[in-house]
Automatic annotation (TrEMBL):
<dbReference type="InterPro" id="IPR040803">
    <property type="entry name" value="MfnD_preATP-grasp"/>
</dbReference>
<dbReference type="InterPro" id="IPR011761">
    <property type="entry name" value="ATP-grasp"/>
</dbReference>
<dbReference type="InterPro" id="IPR003806">
    <property type="entry name" value="ATP-grasp_PylC-type"/>
</dbReference>
<feature type="domain" description="ATP-grasp">
    <location>
        <begin position="289"/>
        <end position="351"/>
    </location>
</feature>
<dbReference type="InterPro" id="IPR024710">
    <property type="entry name" value="MfnD"/>
</dbReference>
<protein>
    <submittedName>
        <fullName>Carbamoyl phosphate synthase-like protein</fullName>
    </submittedName>
</protein>
<dbReference type="Pfam" id="PF02655">
    <property type="entry name" value="ATP-grasp_3"/>
</dbReference>
<dbReference type="GO" id="GO:0005524">
    <property type="term" value="F:ATP binding"/>
</dbReference>
<dbReference type="GO" id="GO:0046872">
    <property type="term" value="F:metal ion binding"/>
</dbReference>
<dbReference type="Pfam" id="PF18301">
    <property type="entry name" value="preATP-grasp_3"/>
</dbReference>
């Protein structure tokens, strides 16, 4: 059984029992969410929009790998939200895909549909919007702007913060200004290429898409000279070490660390592929990573809600690679890793002035594999 099937099975079982207990016992944390919703009556409608599976590519071929990751995040989030009383979810869905089990209201997007009309219909019906979309091409920023313009609560980072963190070049510059250790990023025509190993990747890319490592300047230059990459990519020095990531919550320049993860990334013939993560696989660096999380949040006060940070850890030296101002694949294992409901924490963060993490939060090691 793969991860998506596993989550779907747990969600289906949860229709007749306790969804939350299927992952882990809830932690002792008395949230003040009754200010917003209580009992069994719906007091809060959340539009959960996952771009790939929710119609963003409704007239394009659906890449299987992106559908898999998108569904993993979507189903995990819907499962967590379904365990919160007084809340209903609205979801758009590409008509070519099976319907998610736990959506309260579903709007199908077919190839003949008007996507903008479907999006607006869901936006109008919602009180708040949770976006899961790529930063590439300004997609996440665009939808965030529309949510705010509609007067709805955006359960995520501000469009301005998304715009800056979407660019690896801009992110590197901002973090360097705040004395945070970050990999230098150069535009190809300005890169001080010297002997050594270099990595080239899209400036606003997500994941490992079109990212390659080069052992020679000539091979790097030749690759960048094709497909217009001189205008779209950045160049970074290769950093040895173990790939890692942070899952954290942010608000107003503050951060709350949820898990320290080991990333499962494979390098094959110069190309990178992402295979999942091991949540809390880097928990032995918790203290240092918690301090780093605070400094990253201070550098980007517009980061809000769930945020992922990609890193390299080499013999205790920690260097930031990029910031993901949205849900990441690691979210799928977060409830088990923490022993409580991360979606509830996000809502507590947005709807209450005073926020704190549960005192009994676990640091369980949970592996999320995209190969199963």
């Amino acid at each position: 059984m793969n991860n998506f099937q596993c989550i779907a099975a747990i969600a289906q079982a949860g229709l007749d029992g306790s969804v939350e207990m299927a992952f882990a016992a809830p932690c002792a944390h008395h949230l003040a969410l009754q200010q917003v919703y209580d009992g069994n009556d719906v007091h809060l409608k959340i539009f959960v929009f996952e771009y790939v599976t929710g119609g963003g590519l409704y007239r394009e071929t659906l890449p299987a790998s992106l559908v898999r990751e998108g569904d993993l995040m979507l189903q995990s989030l819907l499962l967590d939200l379904s365990g919160i009383p007084g809340l209903a979810t609205i979801v758009t869905r590409d008509a070519r895909l099976p319907a998610p089990v736990l959506a309260n209201q579903l709007v199908e997007v077919s190839p003949t549909a008007d996507f903008e009309q479907c999006w607006q219909q869901c936006l109008d019906a919602a009180d708040a919007v949770w976006l899961i979309a790529p930063e590439t091409g300004g997609v996440l920023e665009k939808f965030g702007v529309e949510v705010i313009a509609a007067g709805k609560r955006l359960l995520g980072s501000t469009p301005d913060a998304v715009k800056v963190t979407a660019s690896k070049f801009s992110t590197s510059a901002r973090l360097a200004e705040h004395d945070v250790a970050v990999v230098p990023s150069y535009m190809p025509h300005d890169a001080p290429i010297t002997a050594g190993v270099w990595v080239a990747k899209p400036d606003d890319g997500a994941g490992c898409e079109d990212t390659c490592r080069f052992d020679s300047h000539s091979a790097l230059s030749a690759w960048l000279g094709r497909a217009g990459r001189m205008q779209t990519h950045v160049v970074q020095p290769w950093l040895p070490g173990e790939p890692a990531s942070l899952s954290m919550l942010c608000r107003d320049g503050q951060a709350w660390l949820l898990s320290c993860n080991r990333q499962l990334i494979e390098l094959n013939q110069g190309g990178f592929s992402y295979h999942g993560s091991e949540l809390n696989g880097m928990a032995h660096h918790w203290s240092a990573l918690e301090s780093l999380a605070q400094r990253v949040a201070a550098a980007f006060p517009g980061l809000a809600g769930y945020v992922g940070v990609d890193l390299v850890v080499d013999d205790g030296a920690i260097t930031v690679l990029e910031i993901n101002p949205r849900l990441t694949t690691s979210y799928a294992g977060l409830s088990r890793a923490m022993g409580c409901n991360p979606a509830r924490l996000v809502l507590d963060l947005f709807y209450n002035d005073v926020f704190e993490l549960p005192p009994l939060m676990s640091r369980n090691v949970v592996k999320i594999s995209l190969n199963a």
